[in-house]
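Provenance

Sequences were taken from public entries as deposited. Structures were produced by running a predictor on each sequence independently, with no templates supplied. The record for NADH-quinone oxidoreductase subunit H from Nocardioides perillae is shown for reference.
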Amino acid sequence: MSDDLSAFGGDPLWVVLLKAVLIFVVLVLLTLFNIWWERRVVARMQHRIGPNVHGPFGLLQSLADGVKLALKEDIIPKAADKVVFVLAPVITVVPAFITFSVIPFGPEVEIPFTDVVTPLQLTDMPVAVLFVMAIASIGIYGIVLGGWASGSTYSLLGGLRSSAQMISYEVAMGLALVAVFLYAGSMSTSQIVAAQEEFWFGVILLPSFVIYVISMVGEVNRAPFDLPEAEGELVGGFHTEYSSLKFALFFLGEYVNMATVSALATTLFLGGWRAPFGIAQVWEGANEGYWPLLWFFGKVLLFIFFFIWLRGSLPRLRYDQFMALGWKVLIPLSLGWIVAVATIRAVSLEGGIDRQYLLVGIGALAIVFLGLFFVGDSGDDEEAEASEREAALAPRPGGFPTPPMPAGGPVRGAAAPLRFDEPHVGGTATTTTTAPRTQEES
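Predicted structure for NADH-quinone oxidoreductase subunit H:
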């Protein structure tokens, strides 16, 4: 498929400015709604009420919180690098808005009260998806630099964790998108949406879709992958020392990034702005005019709900589990799936085996390999736990060996066994028994 981008680049200046302002306003309003929606959904999951006072249904609660943050005292730590400390939140939030410049919201439409026809997309380019990933990578540097410039150990560790996540999960995410490029024959977002007119890539490229969804959660530092801001061990992580508007920018960047990866998943795997299956067959105008905006934002909000559901359901992973998932599971599966998709495309183009049978077979193999990965990991974990138990029960030089209890190990608070050969302080042995001692005393 050739990249036909003739619809872009010819808009008047006022149309370009109008699109840019609308994208900014929509993302800000969407962030305010997403914060309220997350608090309401998690409250319902935890049998609470959630925000319900400010505005109808509490919809103005996010706005009230934003005003509160703006009025708080802005503190810069004495040990901080002031220039980098101030620039880090800006570096995080600006790329989050820029990435939406190549996201298609709908087809070509006529602007009301004018005769200007323009696509519902700011711009497009032959490598638009690579542009999104490159700009999103810059946003991670804001977190890294913010943690480093704060002058705090907790913040520094949060920044280091963020850089590790960026390396690990961006590799898996990029590899998951290769299959989409092979199938669509283009890296242009508008052309990828056009290639999904009959079938969504989320269905025929299901392994890529699953890998991308897992990677996008790690990419935006959301639970259960929110290791850079784990309050259990790092207080607040990279933003521990931030307050007022600087903290608000980090907060805004996180929620806009959620919308960005959700919009990219919608564009690449769920047909973009096209109506769901069945609606277009019944209603001819479902993909015309401004109606596609409804389908696009409906799919984006579906992903946002997925983020919220994960946060309210799953506990945070250990850091070693998190890294092992990226390097030992997602990246090998992505590489194997790329080879499979390339084979399918080559065979299909040459008129060989039916593509549907190949997809079913490769999908089954992918599920088998995924199961083997998890089975292998569980066996390694059992062996590691067994070796740890043996090491704990082994006698230490000069120590007091305690045999295991019948249940398999020493019980906290249980009395230690009697010893008949324990020496006195002076070094002479005795055959008298010693009084039982608790585990804490020993």
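The chain has a mean pLDDT of 80.
Strands lie at 108-110, 117-119.
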